[in-house]
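Worked example 2:
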Amino acid sequence: MSHIRGRLNKAVDKLVNKYTASIPFDWRLYQHDIAGSIAHAKMLARQGIIAPKEAESIVSGLKAIKDEIEQGKFQFKPELEDIHLNIEAGLMDKIGEAGGKLHTARSRNDQVALDLRMWAKEAIAETRNKLRGLQRALLDLAEANKEVAMPGYTHLQPAQPVLLAHHLLAYFEMLQRDIDRFGDCLKRTDVMPLGSGALAGVGYNIDREFLAGELGFSEISQNSLDAISDRDFVIEYEAAASLGMMHLSRLAEEIILWSSAEFNFIELDDAYATTSSIMPQKKNPDVAELVRGKTGRLYGHLTAMLTTMKALPLAYNRDMQEDKEGFFDSADTLLATLEVVTGIIKTIRVKKENMKQATQRGYLLATDLADYLVGKGEPFRSAHNIMGKLVSYAVQRGKALNELSLAEYKQFSPLFGEDAKSITTETSIAARDNTGGTAPKQVNKALARARKIVSGGS
């Protein structure tokens, strides 16, 4: 503490002041710091630790400071290090000696742990809300294109035909896991540390249950040492955020591929694309590319926080001041990314005919024809071998499977009949009629289930 020297006989070096100050980034905790202090002041008065009039003065002063901050009138002082000391000093300037009583039965250690948990709870709620918004956008796009067939890929090679809606619903499932993960993270974040003091608890008859109720916490921390030094909830948010960004990056990669001239499956809205500074014909998917790029940024914050915490002895260490910048940036980046990806999805134009035509290339029906032979009595492994040779034959002649004659088919197996020609993209998709499959019946069920989830059902 730069202005609380007590035991120390020298002023803090100006370089140290600058190096240790966190006010440039932790100022954004001001609402939570003030809310925590108001609840703390009320509790102190209820318990007879300070006079009711002193508590009223403190609460009034804190509310005035909040207004000043939001109006841009409050002057933050870097020499006071952090948001907590800035508000406390501002309060003492405003109401005098009573302001100095606010810190009774409280340490900056449990104060900052409280503020950060309150901020995290709000970030989690907003993150889940924006994840749900992206799910809705994906559902709208899927439902508007329920009949559209496209190639499914493995190894980025054409594999089997699927419905576009089925493909989009895969991302719905990823986002649902993200929502569930953040919900689980909230359970461990929703624990109130206030009352833990510096590390050992406090020597006053405080009412932690009252504080938890005032501040909206469902649980109270059970060990003061752990409460002060726990940043698992920060790491857990960053881990869930990293997973979420990974999912968004995968979606972004497909948007980039699909919008290329080579795929030509979709058209990006002009509002979500850029052009070249030199090549006037270009329409670049820069926004989606930045989604990919910013994913590594979140991975870095997660790794940094794990590294910071890995060797810290109990309880508080100043290293833990490094918990905030990466945490704030992780949330900011994820929230902004969710908004922009939702915008991309809402404005995408699907080139349905191009997707359909792509299913006619790449020999996507080879597996169905192997299954056809199995239905005629051929063991699958030998049917697989037969179809491999048949595809090779077609490739060498530059023909699609449906361009081969029945006589050509029979060169590879006498089991082929005219009915082999009835196997199409539509019949292939319809055949995958089991839970989780791409058949229209299953996709319609999946869409209904997904719509129920986003509407608040189970």
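The two ends are 50 Å apart (CA to CA). The chain has 18 helices and six strands.
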